[in-house]
Amino acid sequence: MSTHAARTSPDADPPAASNLPTEAGASTEADLPGTTLQLKDALGRFFALVEPTRVELWNERGLTLGQLRLLFAVRDAAGASTGEVGQAIGLTGSSLTGLVDRVAALGFVRREPDQQDRRVTRLWLTDAGATLVAEFESAREADFSAVLAQLPPAHRRDLARLFTEFVDAAQHLIEAQRLGEDGRLGEGGRGGASTSDERASGPVEHGGAATSAPA
């Protein structure tokens, strides 16, 4: 409620614009906790609405959320190393290797050794994997389109712009945090993680638990 008041008061009282820089800064700080809670609540409600449909699709295919995230990451960076894909989805070591093993066993991902460094494995979607990702993406786009159709065109554009800025800010923050972690770990950065990922082998119970829990 307070966030709406903060947005509408400048429009209702144009003469106050001369003091905008000072007041805007104070207003931003004052509104941040309430805005954070409002956005958190809205996102929670949204995912509560769409999650049953998504879970139904996962279950129909016998997939977990972790496996789907891996497929989308490989689609977005075809030919990336296992370590690079793991960095994109936040997994390393045996958890990542076990996840790749299971998705490859399902026939959705193929692995090939890097031509310059045989220790590194690179990932591509198979035809079946590409078809599956396209199916999920099509269903997701249909759901989003149905919801967006309920909003005026100007609101749709504003929502797309603002949410893109929100996600970009989140990505920037996460990447900055990862760079800080890589600096502290020294050799445990991108190159080190990629090599250890390729060497990990054997059944992975921990990876299965970690990736199947969301589904």
Q: What is the CATH fold-level name of the domain at 49-151 and 188-212?
A: Arc Repressor Mutant, subunit A
- Helix-and-strand structural type: mainly alpha
Strand content: under 5%
What's the alpha carbon Rg, rounded to whole Å? Answer: 22 Å
Low-confidence stretches: 1-25, 189-215
Count the E strands: 2
What's the helix-strand series? HHHHHEEHHHH
CATH class of the domain at 49-151 and 188-212: Mainly Alpha
Set down the secondary structure blueprint.
Blueprint: H1 2-12, H2 20-61, H3 65-76, H4 82-89, H5 93-105, E1 109-113, E2 121-125, H6 127-148, H7 153-185, H8 190-199, H9 205-212
Antiparallel strand pairs: 1-2
Can you describe what's shown?
By secondary structure, the chain is mainly alpha-helical. It has a domain of 128 residues: Winged helix-like DNA-binding domain superfamily/Winged helix DNA-binding domain (Arc Repressor Mutant, subunit A, Orthogonal Bundle), CATH 1.10.10.10. 74% of the residues lie in helices and 5% in strands. The protein is built from nine helices and two strands; from the N terminus they run αααααββαααα. It has a two-stranded antiparallel ribbon with strand order 1-2. α3 packs across α4 and α3 packs across α5. It is globular.
